[in-house]
Amino acid sequence: MFLLFFLFPSNLKGSSGVRKMTMTETPSSALKGAIQLGITHTVGSLSQKAERDVLMQDFYVVESIFFPSEGSNLTPAHHHGDFRFKTYAPIAFRYFRELFGIRPDDYLYSLCNDPLIELSNPGASGSIFYVTSDDEFIIKTVQHKEAEFLQKLLPGYFMNLNQNKRTLLPKFYGLYCVQAGGKNIRIVVMNNLLPRSVPMHLKYDLKGSTCKRRASPKEREKSVPTYKDLDFIQDMPEGIQLEPDNYNALCKTIQRDCLLLQSFKIMDYSLLVGIHNTDQASRERSGAVEGGGSEGAQKALYSTAMESIQGEAKGKGTLETEDQWGGIPARNSKGERILIYIGIIDILQSYRFIKKIEHSWKALVHDGDTVSVHHPGFYAERFQRFMCSTVFKKTLKSSPSKKSRSGCSSVVRRHPMGSSASAPSGQTVADARLMYRTHLSQTDSEGESGE
Prior knowledge:
Its main location: cytoplasm. The longest helix is centred in the middle third of the chain and has 20 residues, at about 145-165. It is built from 14 helices and 14 strands. It is α+β, with helices and mostly antiparallel strands. It is globular. Residues about 5-25, about 290-300, about 310-320, about 355-370 and about 400-450 have low confidence and may be disordered. The chain has 2 domains: about 10-190, 2-Layer Sandwich (Phosphatidylinositol Phosphate Kinase II Beta); about 200-285 and about 305-450, 2-Layer Sandwich (Phosphatidylinositol Phosphate Kinase Iibeta, Chain: A, domain 2), CATH 3.30.810.10. About 40% of the residues are buried. The chain has helices spanning about 30-45, 90-100, 105-110, 145-165, 215-220, 230-235, 245-265, 280-285, 305-310, 355-365, 375-390, 400-415, 430-440, 445-450, and strands at about 60-65, 85-90, 115-120, 130, 135-140, 170-180, 185-190, 200-205, 225, 240, 270-275, 330, 335-345, 390-395.
């Protein structure tokens, strides 16, 4: 868990007169307080501006306000020390929030009414994550290059959302910067993919790569580890079974999103998959002396997984109360009912020179087609193929009429791509990996010539 020390000019002096402040020197409580003060001010001042269409110059606007600890005519007094708060593209992000049905007062209430909760599982990049108390929003610290890349991405992001609201890409609601003690701490507000109020029985971070894609021993010690591609192939060789309509909608959404990411030369992104086992949760509740567990779980209000692939949440289904939580209904290989929560994460990685060097170096040590860092075109194709043939599978209709019309064709389509589904349950990781690699080899030449 990160312990951050928020240092200000009065105690930043060193041999050179000014001491640099690092992320590990910023106290979490002060940073959270500064974020909430800044967002309260910027959203409040934005509400006084008339609604209008988003213009190209709006993507490049940066507003800045100084927060002295003693307060000013524009800002309240506070105990976090002097800091400056910057808001990037406020008009554009207001449009994005409105597009997802987020009202300004609800946005403020979620982010600023209660203390932010720091997540104890920070990302591998060293980013710090906060979640709002109502589970709706995630706040993530980002590096300068990532924030800069997001700014450049905004016009294309705007165009994509106008053309298609069904997307698994992150929903960006705001980009801000806290300046204090000569240090810039940039943060982005996004949708929360995995609500804490819905217990996740399994979690996977999937890239479609097999090179060292296994959870570390340290990760496995956690109560709910985040597993990786090789773990999934071993644990769920038959994949996640989806109804045909949901499978088609999901794969179409993944295809569209990958095409957009490829056009921006983005790669190394992942599909974050959270699995809530409905049947297991029911057994846990019935077996508990003190019930309650997840019965009081909050419903996600914005940008649920089901909305991401179908455009609207389905309020009726066969999962009783759990179908209202925004997860996509599915079944595992045992036939158990599950809800999946998914989204594409880590998209702020452009295939720049350093990534090309990284791929070249890894390709010398491993099979170049299995490493995660790859050309955006090849990466997108491999990502889609893995998700829609290995991770997610289309269930066959049980209706006799459906079987006579489409059952055989479904089997023919799935047989060459999902050979792991027909493998025995005791299949080894090496066998599963070999099948996956055999499938990859069909398009290796296409991937190499696509860049």
